[in-house]
Design a protein that fits this description.
single chain, 238 residues, alpha/beta, Rossmann fold, DNA polymerase, domain 1, 2 domains, six-stranded parallel sheet, two-stranded antiparallel sheet, 9 helices, Haloacid dehalogenase
Length: 238
């Protein structure tokens, strides 16, 4: 009987970096709708959902949260601007080892999904540009929920719904680069792997007590050993 594994990935800082196209799109959307230029200046979005980002930027720009109608308009305009800019982003890049890892897991017929703060449409644009779309079968997105935990729970539920009978949440692996990725994975009883290709280094990630800490996704043998052995906390060759 084939022993399928289920792995959930974050996108930004874990699989790829979009090269600033999101920053430009948020700046332009706020400028068009509220006449506030450069609203992103010195803002740290790490690990936040797109809905959280909009509310943070709104508080900075307007001194208040957006109304539901303003959220709708900002989300739609941001998504349009992102789609028009993603193919021109010169600094867009894949994280080291990301494509090979996904290709290997996909080739083994493992079940791959996403838990990302991106709106679903912008997530799809990033994956399309990176040539990664075909690897993923399910996901939870920033358009599904305001809070990261809620969208990660949705990703897990959607993954389990299309997984073979017998796959348990405690065997599912979540791979991410941010504090929120690890905290949400642990809160849901998932096995967590933290990769230091985002804004946090190895030592900072270790403080979060994930089951595995990696410098990059290039250490394929270590990652596969971890995925294939649910009882393993830190692989023997680390």
């Amino acid at each position: 009987m084939f022993d399928m594994k289920m792995i959930i990935f974050d996108i930004d800082g874990t699989l790829l970096l979009a090269g600033g196209v999101g920053v430009d799109a948020f700046n332009q959307a706020f400028n068009e709708l509220f006449h506030v230029p450069e609203v992103w200046d010195h803002y740290d979005p790490h690990g936040k959902t797109d809905q959280e980002i909009i509310q943070d930027l709104s508080r900075r720009a307007l001194g208040r949260q957006t109304t539901p109608e303003e959220m709708r308009r900002l989300s739609e305009r941001y998504t349009e601007l992102f789609a028009s800019g993603i193919d021109r982003a010169e600094r867009f890049r894949l994280m080291p080892g990301a494509f090979q890892l996904l290709q290997t897991l996909h080739g083994r017929q493992d079940l791959l999904g996403l838990a990302t703060g991106n709106f679903e449409l912008t997530a799809q644009q990033k994956l399309r540009r990176a040539g990664l779309s075909h690897f993923f079968r399910f996901g939870g997105f920033g358009s599904d929920a305001y809070e990261r935990l809620a969208l990660t729970r949705l990703a897990l539920e959607r993954g389990l719904a299309c997984a073979p009978q017998g796959v348990r949440a405690g065997e599912v692996v979540l791979i991410g680069d941010a504090r929120q990725d690890i905290e949400c994975g642990k809160a849901l009883g998932l096995r967590t792997a933290a990769v230091a290709t985002g804004s946090l280094g190895v030592d900072e990630l270790k403080v979060l007590n994930p089951d595995l800490v990696l410098e990059t996704l290039e250490d394929l043998s270590t990652i596969l050993e971890f995925i294939d052995n649910p009882s393993l906390k830190q692989p023997s060759n680390r």
